[in-house]
Amino acid sequence: AAEYQPTGWQPLGGGALEPLESLAGKPVFAFCGLGRPDSFQRTLAGLGVNLCRFVPLRDHQVYDRPLLNRLGLDFLASRAEFLVTTAKDAVKLPPNFPLPVKILKMELALDRPGELAETVLRTARRGLSEES
Q1: pLDDT at residue 116 is higher than 90
Q2: Residue scoring higher pLDDT (19 or 120)
Q3: Ordered DSSP codes for the chain
Q4: Which of 12, 67, 94, 118 has the most CB atoms within 10 Å of its CB?
C-alpha cells in the first residue's frame, strides 16, 4: 500500500522547502483543479491552516487571464496571507505571478518499500527469463 503525504511548502518560483508547520494557523486562500478537490481541502485542514477561502476548479483547468484576475481579486478580498495550491496547479501559473503562492509538496510513501522492490525485481527477472 502507498499514499501521498505532504512534505512541506515551496514558494512559487522555487526556493527552500518550508516545514509544514510554517503555515499552521495562518490565513490562506486555497485553490486547485483536481478530480477530487475535497481531498486537497481535507489535507489543508489536517495541516492546521486557517482556510479563509477554498476555490475548487475543474480538473485540468486552463489558467487564462480572467481566471488569474478573479483568483487575485478574491485572494485580496479574503485577507489571507498566502495563496496555496498543488504542484499540478502551480505549473500553470505564470512565473512572474505577483501574489504570494505556496505550493504543497507531496511524496509517495510506501508501507513496505522492501517488499515492493523484491516484487519488481522478481517480475523483471521473470520477464528477462521469458525473453531468452
Answers
A1: no
A2: 19
A3: -EEEEEEEEEETT--PPBPGGGGTT-EEEEEE--S-HHHHHHHHHHTT-EEEEEEE--TT----HHHHHHHHHHHHHHT-SEEEEEHHHHTTS-TT--S-EEEEEEEEEES-HHHHHHHHHHHHHHHHHHH-
A4: 12
